[in-house]
Specification:
This protein is an alpha/beta fold. It has ten helices and nine strands. Helix 4 packs across helix 5.
């Protein structure tokens, strides 16, 4: 796992006072945080806290009502900068869309050609090995389990070997063995990449994260290291304290 004690490392991801409003509903309110290069950061919160909305704004899929995002010094909200950022960013949305009639191999070929990925055959071999897809490489995606589809999405996000990975609930739908494999992959990727993953699973945070941003009801409740978050208490106790009684009552933490 990456070390997070070097304050001289440049900031790779920055949210500056981001708000998102839909009519009378405030999905995000003045969300600010930063993630330094080479860090695995967990964006932790109960379901409905605003995690996916934040991920979409950071990656340019959604425009904020106020505030701004920066990724590798680029503004994902600007079309020309978003195009440059796409070459350096891998994004796995929750339940990300795939082409069900394609095989994983056909998908990687198609995406690689669109992205003009150099040495495409080598890149496909790399992500197939990283995500353990050998056994399903030539099966239609529509016939794959949810766990395998998730791994196909992960491989697709890694195909162009991005500097930054943004993963929205990356272990959603996986069985315990697959979860262990994906967490191991995230830790390995964190040795050379900056990773931001959203999750509501406390065990996931303890397994992979250097830094933690806790969000509750659209607001940042904490940002810092995992040790700073826990202090002399358990992560579960601190999360319930920060996320509020609503999160505890709805039992939205796995």
């Amino acid at each position: 796992m990456s070390s997070n004690d070097d304050a001289s490392r440049p900031v790779t991801i920055r949210a500056e006072g981001i708000s998102k409003v839909y009519g009378d509903f405030v999905a995000l309110h003045d969300v600010s945080f930063s993630v330094r290069k080479g860090t695995i950061a967990a964006f932790l919160g109960p379901n409905g806290a605003g995690k996916s909305t934040t991920m979409k704004i950071l990656t340019g899929y959604l425009a904020p009502t106020a505030g701004r995002a920066r990724m590798l010094g680029l503004d994902p909200g600007q079309a020309d900068e978003r195009h440059t950022l796409a070459e350096k960013l891998g994004y796995l949305p929750e339940n990300g869309p795939l082409y069900p009639d394609m095989t994983p191999y056909e998908l990687f070929e198609f995406v690689g050609e669109v992205r003009s990925v150099p040495n495409l055959l080598g890149a496909i071999d790399r992500v197939v090995g990283q995500c353990a897809l050998e056994s399903v490489l030539h099966k239609p995606i529509r016939k794959l389990s949810k766990g395998f589809r998730q791994r196909v999405g992960m491989a697709n996000a890694l195909l162009h070997d991005p500097e930054v990975l943004v993963l929205d609930e990356p272990t959603s739908g996986l069985d315990p063995l697959q979860i262990r494999e994906v967490r191991g992959l995230i830790r390995k990727l964190g040795e050379s990449k900056t990773v931001l993953l959203s999750t509501h699973i406390l065990q996931e945070v303890e397994a992979v994260a250097d830094e933690v941003i806790v969000v509750a009801e659209g607001r940042v409740a904490f940002t810092g290291s995992l040790d700073e978050l826990k202090g002399d208490r358990t992560l579960e106790e601190r999360f319930y304290e920060l996320a509020g009684d609503k999160a505890a009552k709805r039992k939205e933490v796995a």
